[in-house]
Amino acid sequence: MQHRKLHDDGGQTTWVIVLETGDEVMQCMQRFAEEQGIFAAQFSAIGAFRRVVLNYFDWDAKQYIRIPVDQQVEVASLTGDIAQAPSGKPALHIHLVVGRRDGSAMAGHLGEGHVRPTLEIVLTESPTLLRKAYDPESGLALIRPSTA
After folding, report:
1. Bridge partners of 4?
2. How many domains does the chain fold into?
3. From CA 61, how far away is CA 138, in angstroms rounded?
4. Which residues belong to any copy of the PPC domain (predicted)?
């Protein structure tokens, strides 16, 4: 993983983060957020994976269903945010759409993604803290602007 600060103005910082073959996205992004102390950001990315696991939230069961995709795929769209989890650590929330060789697409939350050959991420950090709070209806920690 390589990264570089592109711009910093009044606490709003833009970063470029480039992952390479073999990097796992969730681990790299979590480490980056923790090392840089990022608790409010949004990001997007393009690239490709050699293998990815999508997660689909089953509302009735209140749990994620894992959908492994064990093939090379293009990242057609990857968007996400970072907020502070109830634990105090940065919390990633990433959605993506991947395209398969036949042109079909699959989408969901990113569970894990193994890069090949690259994933190019542009992240914009906000100077304001963004917090998540436990939501009893869903059983998830969700962003609550009122807790910022």
Report:
1. 16
2. 1
3. 10
4. 8-146
Q: Are 41 and 29 in contact (CB under 8 A)?
A: no
Q: How far apart are the first and last CA of the chain?
A: 30
* Secondary structure of 54-111 as H, E, C letters: EEEEECCCCEEEEEEECCCEEEEEEEEEEEECCCCCEEEEEEEEEECCCCCEEEEEEE
> Tens digit of pLDDT for each residue in 82-96?
999 999 999 999 999
From CA 143, how far away is CA 108, in angstroms rounded?
A: 19
Contact of 131 with 40, CB cutoff 8 Å: no
> Which range marks the domain in which residue 71 is found?
2-147
List, in order, residues 6 or more apart from 75 with CB less than 8 Å away: 45, 46, 47, 48, 49, 96, 97, 98, 113, 119
* CA distances in angstroms from 54 to 6, 92, 94, listed in the order given: 30, 14, 10
CATH code of 9's domain: 3.30.1330.80
In this prediction the pTM is 0.91
